[in-house]
Amino acid sequence: MKKLIVSFALGLSLLGLGGMAVAQEPASAPAATAPAAAASEAAAPAAEAAPAPAAAASEAAAPAPTPNKGDVSWMMLSTLLVIMMAIPGLALFYGGLVRSKNMLSVLMQVMVTFAMIVVLWAIYGYSLAFTEGNAFIGGFDRLMMKGIWDNTAGTFANAATFSKGVVIPEIVFAAFQATFAGITCALIVGAFAERIKFSAVLLFTAIWFTFSYAPVAHMVWFWMGPDAYTGPDVVDAMNAKAGLIWQWGALDFAGGTVVHINAAVAGLVGAYMVGKRVGYGKESMAPHSLTLTMVGASLLWVGWFGFNAGSALEANGFAALAFINTLFATAAAVLAWCIGEALMRGKASMLGAASGAVAGLVAITPAAGNVGIGGGLIIGFIAGFACLWGVNGLKKMLGADDSLDVFGVHGVGGILGALLTGVFNSPNLGGPSAVADWTTVAMIAPDAYTIAGQVWTQAKAVLLTVVWSAVVSVIAYKIVDLTIGLRVSEEDEREGLDITSHGETAYSK
């Protein structure tokens, strides 16, 4: 615990120093698995002797890798799917859950937040997350996306994948990751819906994105890429350039820590600091349109295939594994939530089915390409019950007015998925294991994999993410409160934010 606190404090102190390091080619996210092709090609360890001059010359003359059109097409499609997750998926899912007088305000908060973060990502966010700096934050090599076009080569720069010699255009990788940043920040909106100022949402999000999302993304996903591991003699140096949590060996295929836990903690802190809605616990605050919520949940499920399977960065077997786990785990979570509701209340609800789908999607996110199909089913089934408890029992224990149960679903589901990834990644339980040596891309052998050790690594990553996001969130909310104020007046809140904040209504009367 002391090491985690020291690491966090050191990270904050170094945020301003990230640009002092010279950034190299950005590595791809998430550093959770190696594609099967790379693993199969690594049949022999690197040669101990230095290459002969002729061999060295031929290697030097070898052409640079070029992107595969299939990989590029899949990544562009995945990027579009994630955009659909946010707009309209998340927007409609959240919009249906609030009262009709606040429908447009939630749609606006989701859409404009997403748009603002995409712009900030292009200006500096991508650089802070995915260029070389230190263990906590990247540098400024890609400010305003400079260097994406390689003037010397007369072509676009490439980004690494998880296979040696396989690349995708960096501009495609940057766009894909921009959608992750955008939807993560939009998720937070659900925790303080129906009573916060629109301007406060935007200011808080800009601060939190800069000091929480970008650093956590860097710590979890930044590394130098497989081609940087040219031999055993450079392994330590390459590892030292990676993000802190990546150095620990934590597995996060598509954002259990970076996206869900990070956003959920920020949302929970916001629910406390913004305060409860007027009339909370005394007046009816039932969802105004479960039809829209179901439509939104369905769009989230479809879009999530791009979110998870796209995180393989290639159109390969690991993308397929993430794809099928996203299908199976989510279905299992829907059934589990419905069973739980039926046992608790005597009947299953549409809201419960939609919430169960999101719970399963959240929990399988860090595990999607890291666990076998059986492990994915188990994770989804457990998540359905766990998140049902999260939005009922845990919510009462916490005492916060988390309007749309951001922490109950994304926090509980994200933590559960992150920890269970360490269990079901084990090759002894049908998982693909993890890379033991990026020089040869050799996987950890079944007899060498320790579930307890990997779960502990996952737990450290979870704990650091929770602490980091919580501290940044408290500071960010306080800054907003002291400058422009966090919430609207009681009169405006009772009338509804659609009219008072945006001058329009979702439905004609």
From TrEMBL:
Q: Where in the cell is it found?
A: Cell membrane; Membrane
Query: Which superkingdom, per the lineage?
Result: Bacteria
**Which PROSITE patterns does the UniProt record give?**
AMMONIUM_TRANSP
The principal localisation class reads: membrane
| Keyword field | Ammonia transport, Membrane, Signal, Transmembrane, Transmembrane helix, Transport
Q: Which residues cross the membrane?
A: 72-94, 106-124, 171-193, 200-224, 244-274, 286-306, 318-339, 351-369, 375-394, 406-424, 461-480
Signal peptide (residue range): 1-23
Which residue windows are coiled coil? none
Domain Ammonium transporter AmtB-like per the UniProt entry, residue ranges: 74-507
Q: How does it sit in the membrane?
A: Multi-pass membrane protein
* InterPro entries found in the cross-reference section: Ammonium/urea_transptr (IPR029020), Ammonium_transpt (IPR001905), Ammonium_transpt_CS (IPR018047), NH4_transpt_AmtB-like_dom (IPR024041)
Q: Does the keyword Transport apply?
A: yes
- NCBIfam families for this protein: amt (TIGR00836)
**What family is reported?**
Belongs to the ammonia transporter channel (TC 1.A.11.2) family.
PANTHER family attached here?
AMMONIUM TRANSPORTER MEP2
This protein is called Ammonium transporter
Q: Which organism is it from?
A: Aquincola tertiaricarbonis
| Gene assigned in the entry | amt
